């Protein structure tokens, strides 16, 4: 199964990626995207596919599963998860509180209708399985219930600081059922494990930040899947997109943010079932192996 890992060019040729790209109908829905000129190589598409793959591998995309999405914007994942029989609570920041840039670029969901993609799901199934509500990732006020999976796609790095993003990841796990999975993508600093953007509209996490997050999760009885920091060595992996991003003919894998090269990084968090926690406490897993 996939582990926590960085986006790299080689992933786009993997069978799992092609499978998820087909299921999400990326080439049909986003046929007019600038990435269509370069075989749809774009890290945003990778984020959606890798989130869906991580959840599918772990048995979460099936009828009866409940999912909670944060800062869903206008991504197709809500429609796709509903098409798989999942009940979804999709959230985004209230329109009046959202950064104007997100509204101007159509990356913000002001209503449930913004999440509906007819190529992915029938209207009646979408209406029956999807609920939308405004929610602030910094406070999580108004969210209740337990879910089989949580997800966000490059969202928590926009909460104002490195710590605010980490707080969100940790605090949101309280909505996970036993055996649940949280899957998030965020920014990873490719250049440095020391200097980075620590505050502002976009921050960039370092390797050490993810290692510390793993330790914090472990202290709460959760697991972060193995960290893989390989960012690839293909010429396309070594190129860095600059503003204005995603111009025609550009493969958008690495990008310059405030002078740092950044790429998308996947985090997979598991809340062990009570029986698994008990086995670990008793040392039975170690005995079995």
Notes on the protein architecture:
With 289 residues, the chain is α/β, with parallel strands linked by helices. 31% of the residues lie in helices and 21% in strands. The protein has 11 helices and 12 strands. The strands form 2 sheets. Strands 1, 2, 3, 4, 5, 7, 9, 10, 11 and 12 form a 10-stranded mixed sheet that branches. Strands 6-8 form a two-stranded antiparallel sheet. Helix 4 links the parallel strand 2 and strand 3. Helix 1 packs across helix 3. The chain is globular. It starts with a strand and ends with a helix.
Main sheet properties: 10 strands, mixed
The helix/strand class is: alpha/beta
Strand content: 15-25%
Rg to the nearest angstrom? Answer: 18 Å
Say how many strands there are. 12
pLDDT < 50 stretches: 98-106
Estimate the global geometry from the Cα principal axes. Answer: globular
Oligomer: single chain
Please work out how many helical segments DSSP would assign.
11
Helix content: 25-40%
Average pLDDT taken over every residue: 92
Order of helices and strands: EHHHEHEHHEEEHEEHEEHEEHH
Straight-line distance between termini: 19 Å
What keyword list fits this structure?
289 residues; alpha/beta; 11 helices; 12 strands
Put the structure in a nutshell.
By secondary structure, the protein is an alpha/beta fold. It is built from 11 helices and 12 strands.
